DNA sequence: GTACGGCTTGACGTGGACGTCAGGGCAAGA
DNA sequence: TCTTGCCCTGACGTCCACGTCAAGCCGTAC
């Protein structure tokens, strides 16, 4: 199949496929007219890439999965290097989620304090605070 | 004070201050030599900006806080528009954290499945799965 | 005199994953 | 023959918050 068909099957754009090729991630054969030609294996690799990108993986992080498929393995994550990427990503996600949760709490505290100050400035009695710490 | 001193006091760079001025966020007076001049109020505004940026706020989102300080309020979050930004940010953080948690679970499942497949391919008996769903 | 430090403006570089446009080729259908 | 549709390459644009470099001015210390 040609580039337009593959792009449509994978729900992406031809520009994206040319970009992946320029990165050496998804090279294409060429037909007599110099047009890119793909097969079912390419579709599988592309779908693997898109799934991981939807998870927030960077393009380079998908390379082990693609290489794994190209090596003939049944799935992109059948290889140790792919599992290593999974584990790194899990750790990264855990760190990020924890960090965001911290920020969330800080922002929530700022908001509460500012709301309390606003109420007090409006003449309301200082509201009792649960678990006052000082 | 001049730009270098302010930058150091706030732990940032002169380039950053010029950038903020170009965005209309932190305009500066000029002295006889055309050098930028700042005062304590500017330092407070700058610190407000940096705190919010550390929280992950975009630069534009800090504008209501700066405007609030400039209007003479005791704190950058003493104004309704600042509180609105806080609330929007909390909702955004909640959404993002939830999304990341979903992704984390999906990646974790992919990893477990791939590990199980690898063990099985290695000749181990299929491990019993807790809470099998199908 | 001159070296130095701080300041000025202007403008290009960074990163990631593409979007978009320009200019051109090739084949099939009306 | 002309249009339509798909493809090609090359190259600039996008977003955001700056980093970095260039060229030059000004005051001060040596």
From TrEMBL, chains A, B:
Q: Which InterPro entries match?
A: DNA-bd_dom_put_sf, MerR-type_HTH_dom, MerR_fam
Entries under Gene3D superfamilies matching the protein: 1.10.1660.10
Tell me the ranges covered by the HTH merR-type domain, including all copies: 1-68
Q: Which UniProt keywords apply?
A: DNA-binding, Transcription, Transcription regulation
Note the Pfam families from the entry: MerR_1
Q: Which parts of the chain are coiled coil?
A: none
**Highest taxon of the lineage:** Bacteria
Record protein name field: MerR family transcriptional regulator
